[in-house]
Amino acid sequence: MALPGLSLPGLGLNSTPTPVYSGPVPPPSEQIARREDLPPQAEWRFEAAFSQQYSIRVLHGHAELFGVELANNQTYNLSGCKGAVFTWQGCQLEVTGEAESEYAAQETEYAVEWLNLHGMLETARDDRPNDGPRVLLVGPDHTGKSSLVRTLAAWAVRNGRTPTVVNLDPREGLLAPPSSLTAVTVGSQMDVENGFGISPISGPTITAVKTPLIYHYPYASPTDRPALYKALLTRIALGTINKLEEDPSAKQSGILIDTPGTLNDPKTGYDTLHHLVSEFSITLILTLGSERLYNDLHRRYAAGKTPDEALPVLKLAKPGGAIERDAGYMKQLRTRQIRQYFFGTARESLNPHSHMLGFDDMTVYRAKPTSADTAEKTSFGAAEEDDYDPSGNGSMVSANAVFEKVAPSVAMMGSTIAIKFCPANSEEFTVRDSAVMGYLYVADVDEARKKVRFLAPHPQRWGDRALVWGQWPEAVADLVT
Ligand SMILES: Nc1ncnc2c1ncn2[C@@H]1O[C@H](COP(=O)(O)OP(=O)(O)OP(=O)(O)O)[C@@H](O)[C@H]1O
């Protein structure tokens, strides 16, 4: 099967399939299945741990999880998930397993607000078929931005649309490991258990998903390397908008952009936010959970402007169920995402391949750490800003280079490595700006024999490409057992 994002020329001959490891299996629950009756417009909120089995089945009525309708009598495994099964007309659920927290909630006004928003976007799609809505979601962490994007995308797909979802939060990957900035046109309904899917080769359905456009931002926060982040925003905006030009239905369906909470900070985030609005030619801004952000953006983009000039800014409340995810949970989530990118899930396993390469057969660029660079930390982007070159023509030689060529070493073990769509010995700005072909996992480094064993989702070799070893996400030690 062709591998979107990794369909590379040049066959690797010493590639061997690696045994599938699908992660720790939650112990079977001794708890008896119980029934929960939900009245109309109520939701079953739950926080299920990674180590516990937790499943939900709809026995009667209709229910959905982040906009995706749950099939009746099908058991959905929701271990390691925090969310809410919502019902418009009422339903009966069968819940099995233990959750850290679970309850029926009836304060769900947010759902009506979201549905109205969906109706508004549908009207905009019908009114301007050649220019679908380009929606930017901003707000502090844990205010429901990703949930809203997922829900709006799912509802749009239910209406036969093909929205393009853009994830600009490097802490959470979309069809790729964390550190990815992804744009993907969603052509089929999402998966209840895995949302948009787990990797480009696995879709929510058997039908292949459309090829995502992936860029690599190898740091946790946009404020770590604002200039690099902005350069990548320019690339992903250009790439997405160009792609939509070739696909009228996707263009009409529009773009939904999820952003990290750090952009909500006036000192360190607004500059990037304005850059984002301009690069994507945003037509609607949605703020979640922050009055201040709403007022700041409304003042800048809407207040006192003529209807033609104004960019509408809407304020949405944070859903009552949206909760903070602590550092430990987020780390487990990242580990699971990385594992699933290579090995798939219990339902849909992937068969990664092992590639042994000599040190001389690869060119590795290391993203430099930022912590020592106090100037950059204290003034947003000041130290780097001069290097920002959206044209990408390389006319500026970087004094504050983000990447440096390094020799492979044991320090790489357990890291994910981005394969860039550029030749191994490219200029730094080319390495920076190139999209990602796919990711590798460093399974082993033998410094004595000068060999690295990579795990890749595909048997083909990637040829003469630059490999980027990021500062983010952290290494995962036990992916291969
Ligand atoms: N109505 C709800 N009921 C229960 N849980 C919810 C609800 N809405 C969202 N959540 C959960 O709350 C958590 C935070 O929500 P979400 O990820 O959508 O916020 P976010 O603003 O995108 O956060 P971040 O910026 O940190 O990515 C998630 O685990 C999500 O599944």
Automatic annotation (TrEMBL):
Q: Which GO terms describe its cellular component?
A: mRNA cleavage factor complex
Taxonomically, the superkingdom here is: Eukaryota
Annotated Low complexity bias = 1-23
Q: Where in the cell is it found?
A: Nucleus
Its keywords, alphabetically, are: ATP-binding, mRNA processing, Nucleotide-binding, Nucleus, Transferase
Give start and end of each AAA+ ATPase domain. 131-369
Q: Name one GO biological process term.
A: mRNA 3'-end processing
Q: State the name under which the record lists this protein.
A: Polynucleotide 5'-hydroxyl-kinase GRC3
State the organism named in the record: Friedmanniomyces endolithicus
